[in-house]
Write the C-alpha cells for this entry.
Amino acid sequence: MASRWLKNAGVQDLVEQFLGMTARRYELSAERIVQELCNFAFSNIQDYVRIDSKGGLHVDLSDITRDQAAAIQEITTEKYPENRKKLWNARNVKSVRFKLSGKVRSLELLIKYLKMFGGKNIAETGVKVVIIDVPRPQRPNIGALPANG
C-alpha cells in the first residue's frame, strides 16, 4: 500500500515537505554531511599521538580540533599495576586506547557521492573498487632482542 501511495504526486509533495522541514531543523545539508565524511575519511593517527625521545607512543588529545575529535569513535582507559604479581611494590600504569571511525566506508561513500570513475555511479560502471586497509607491521620489542643482535 505504501509503495502505491508514494506514486501519488500529493503524497510525494508531503514527503518532500516533511524531509525539508527535518533538514532545516537539524541543519542538514550535502555540504555538512560531506565535510563530516571527510573528517572520518582523512583522519590520521599522527594527529592524536606523540612519540617521545625513546620511541614511546603517547595519546595526546590536547590540541585536536573539533573536526579531528569527530573522527574518534571510542576512547577506553584502564589503570592497572605494572607488575600484577607484586601488587605492593608495583606502580600504576594507565593505558589509553582509542579507535577512529571507519576510513574505508567513509571513502566509499565519498567516491559514490562524487560519482567518480567516468561520471557514473560505481554500481553502474561495472568496476569493482576494493580498498584494503592493511595494518602496519608491529615494531619489534627492543627489550626482547638478544644483547648481541
